[in-house]
Design brief:
The chain is 42% helix and 8% strand. The protein is mainly alpha-helical. It has three domains: 78 residues; 78 residues, no CATH class; 118 residues, no CATH class.
Length: 359
């Protein structure tokens, strides 16, 4: 290069701490507009792009700035204009199709505002406590009892803004499971197709779910693929039991926990409970706790329970609790589900899974 040596421009004060990235496509190096461009043009394009992103100019570069980004700025500017990478505009130059590849000033500021609002929420323990006390740690979109500190579990507890652009105020904040929060995203309820449930004023509904009859659990298993739970306050108890059962089972990812519950309760009571009810028992024992070994924890709790019949078995009905069919020996014993040659789930066992037998 020829001309004055490159002198980096002084760093302007940043608007906020969030970073606005300047994006460079991974095929930039051999793009027809670039592959034979002189180094000064590539240097100017790259440095000016990062400057424009940082200063939220939407791709505008003042004419007086180009000499600060490279030594031979006149040749570099000429090359960028001739190759269609820049366009001449009043007072300087404009990146071609900036908004197609980079965030606009409006989008960056909206993201920064959302980040600042979220950080302010986490610095307000009184507000978070008020939200949790009002909602009783239940998701206001699906009714699931959330698991705080649950990582990436579908039932991990989060806070959601009902109005995504609203303030950090009690009426605009609700408890949400990670699954519903991800589904809603930064959309209003109407756009997301979701309904806001009434706050949990007491634990009556939760206790009704935990004490659901054996027949309800059987129906939940049978209807798991037919009546998926929707975010609707009119959903039946069977739908809620099924929804909670499948969510808790997914959150622990393997069925060792459910097998431990089923086996431990059978040892104490002589009754084999269904997996749907076992998942509710596990949820009641853990109740938001995160022991290092959940299997050992629930086994110890079941062994120590003075009244296992009253706490862990469904309420007695007119008929004796239904028993699972004998294990066929071809599927996983605890879940009665088949696996393919690679170890992936292949659906309910047609010989000994109630769900498959009912279809």
């Amino acid at each position: 290069m020829t001309g004055a040596p490159f002198i980096p421009p002084p760093a302007p004060p940043r608007e906020v701490t969030a970073v606005a990235w300047f994006n460079v496509d991974d095929s930039f190096y051999d793009h027809p507009k670039v592959w034979d461009a002189p180094d000064c043009a590539v240097a100017l394009w790259t440095r000016a792009g990062s400057w424009a992103a940082r200063n939220l100019t939407d791709g505008f570069v003042p004419a007086g700035m180009t000499a600060r980004f490279c030594g031979d700025s006149e040749q570099a500017v000429r090359e960028l204009l001739d190759r269609g990478l820049w366009m001449r505009t009043r007072g300087g130059y404009q990146f071609h199709d900036w908004a197609d590849w980079n965030n606009t000033k409006e989008a960056v500021r909206a993201r920064r505002s959302a980040n600042a609002r979220r950080q302010a929420l986490f610095r307000d323990p009184a507000l978070k406590t008020a939200v949790r006390e009002r909602d009783q740690d239940h998701c206001r979109y699906c009714g699931t009892r959330v698991l705080w500190g649950g990582g990436r579990s579908p039932i991990a507890g989060t806070y959601d803004h009902v109005d995504p652009d609203g303030d950090n105020v009690l009426v605009n904040l609700v408890v949400s499971c990670l699954s519903c929060n991800s589904k809603k995203g930064a959309r209003p309820l109407g756009q997301a197709g979701m309904t806001l449930l009434e706050p949990w004023t007491d634990n009556a509904s939760h206790n009704a779910i935990r004490n659901a009859s054996s027949n309800a659990s059987v129906d939940a298993v049978r209807n798991a693929s037919v009546n998926p739970y929707q975010s609707n306050p009119s959903s039946s108890l069977v739908d809620v039991v099924d929804h909670l059962s499948r969510r808790y089972a997914r959150s622990y990812e393997d069925d060792d926990l459910l097998k431990a519950v089923i086996d431990s309760i059978q040892d104490r009571t002589g009754v084999v409970i269904l997996a749907a009810h076992a998942s509710l028992v596990a949820a009641g024992i853990l109740d938001g706790r995160q022991p290092k070994d959940p299997v050992a924890y629930v086994r110890k709790a079941i062994r120590a329970e003075k009244d296992p019949h009253g706490r862990f078995l469904p309420p007695p009905g007119d008929e004796p609790p239904p028993q699972r069919p004998p294990w066929c020996g071809e599927c996983r014993e605890s879940t009665r589900r088949l696996e393919d040659a690679d170890g992936y789930d292949a659906g309910p066992c047609p010989q000994c899974n109630p769900k498959a037998r009912a279809s």
